Amino acid sequence: MGTPKTAPRTSYHHGDLRNALMDSAVELARLGGPAAVVLREVARRVGVSATAAYRHFSAADELVDEVKHAALAKLAESIERAVEAVPADGDPGDVAVARLRASAEGYLDFAFNETGLFQTAFCREEMEHPEGTEKGRPFAESAAFQMFSGLLDEVLAAGRMAPQWRDGAEIAGWSMVHGFAVLTTDGPLGRHVPDEAKAFIRQRTIDLLLRGLTATD
Amino acid sequence: MGTPKTAPRTSYHHGDLRNALMDSAVELARLGGPAAVVLREVARRVGVSATAAYRHFSAADELVDEVKHAALAKLAESIERAVEAVPADGDPGDVAVARLRASAEGYLDFAFNETGLFQTAFCREEMEHPEGTEKGRPFAESAAFQMFSGLLDEVLAAGRMAPQWRDGAEIAGWSMVHGFAVLTTDGPLGRHVPDEAKAFIRQRTIDLLLRGLTATD
DNA sequence: CACGGAAGTTGACGCCGTCAACATCGAGGA
DNA sequence: TCCTCGATGTTGACGGCGTCAACTTCCGTG
């Protein structure tokens, strides 16, 4: 525990402490989720006294919130990567649906491959962010949510979705993917379900979602 | 804080300390979620020294886990109540679908009305429970899950669901309802979405799920 | 070149979970 | 009847946590 990762610095001042603390905190979150982001441990790893962090963060919770938003950004990246990897040729409706599906896959890939960061991204917001700022902003304006919303618009425009089902579809769809991620990572399905079963129900869950969104009744 | 809730006891021994601690812990969880279940505070409220709890729980985490399972049981009750309230007359298919819908409503009612307990029910399992015991048992054998599974069987038997979609439907459906509950209680949708909007997307989410499950292709 | 403020340090406080050692009480055998 | 012994509580202490006040170091600017 608490092994310093960098050689002890030479000068009294660090020079880039804020970033160093963030990097260390993100690493801890990656390995152990939000609970692992412990101020004193973060400082220890950077080789600095615990209270030094207070020159850059108003409280430990603020540091966690920064990590949280970094994790959210990485999640958005994972989704975007998956969506962009879908070949754009072929029937526009098929492409739109494939891209939507890919967004769910990217979401779940991140949840499984970066479980600690995923948990941190959705842990309780500790600080109150002022209304106007980037972090106080409604989740509906976040990068990931906007992307998902755009993908649904594509599906609608391609005629693969009944217009009366468009409204609220972001949240309904998000709920399903997120719920599956939560239940199968830190949740009750995490430990007792073998991996191949998880892979099956993962596809099942996405299939069911797409079926609900694109059914033609 | 720390106001004792009962008159200071008269005898050296409490007599029913384990239950008293549990009640107090459940109350704290109800008000503040899993993080509010603090061993010293629980003991303080019961009017007993902190270490007395160690005669009944091996560690603080064990106490939290007990609360967790109590909360899970209450969730199952809420679902059951909602399902039983559905009138059983009319077309069997309609009844089966209505009961399935009611289970989702009962789930979400609990999440919104008892947010602290809901969060506690799904917080990370702190202790390792031995394989065979009631608490080490797979979630798939829990009361709530079994009930949900039975409701899906009813829908299938009533011919309102294509058989090839039955497999894995518990988890897919559970994911959607759970995801919505998580996102709108402690999650990012909790603070910024007004209540009437929540009510709309709540129905939307359930509708989408039922549509996916019962669509006739 | 002095000097003022930004960026680190030390030491302390109260909170937490936990342990070891001690105190109290009630049930059951001598 | 009394004695004892195990179950159940208590006290005091330890280390770890977040945080504050007071002090120190160093760099950029006038």
UniProtKB/TrEMBL annotation, chains A, B:
<dbReference type="InterPro" id="IPR001647">
    <property type="entry name" value="HTH_TetR"/>
</dbReference>
<keyword id="KW-0238">DNA-binding</keyword>
<dbReference type="InterPro" id="IPR009057">
    <property type="entry name" value="Homeodomain-like_sf"/>
</dbReference>
<dbReference type="InterPro" id="IPR050109">
    <property type="entry name" value="HTH-type_TetR-like_transc_reg"/>
</dbReference>
<dbReference type="InterPro" id="IPR036271">
    <property type="entry name" value="Tet_transcr_reg_TetR-rel_C_sf"/>
</dbReference>
<dbReference type="Pfam" id="PF13305">
    <property type="entry name" value="TetR_C_33"/>
</dbReference>
<dbReference type="Pfam" id="PF00440">
    <property type="entry name" value="TetR_N"/>
</dbReference>
<dbReference type="InterPro" id="IPR025996">
    <property type="entry name" value="MT1864/Rv1816-like_C"/>
</dbReference>
<keyword id="KW-0804">Transcription</keyword>
<feature type="DNA-binding region" description="H-T-H motif">
    <location>
        <begin position="38"/>
        <end position="57"/>
    </location>
</feature>
<keyword id="KW-0805">Transcription regulation</keyword>
<protein>
    <submittedName>
        <fullName>TetR/AcrR family transcriptional regulator</fullName>
    </submittedName>
</protein>
<feature type="domain" description="HTH tetR-type">
    <location>
        <begin position="15"/>
        <end position="75"/>
    </location>
</feature>
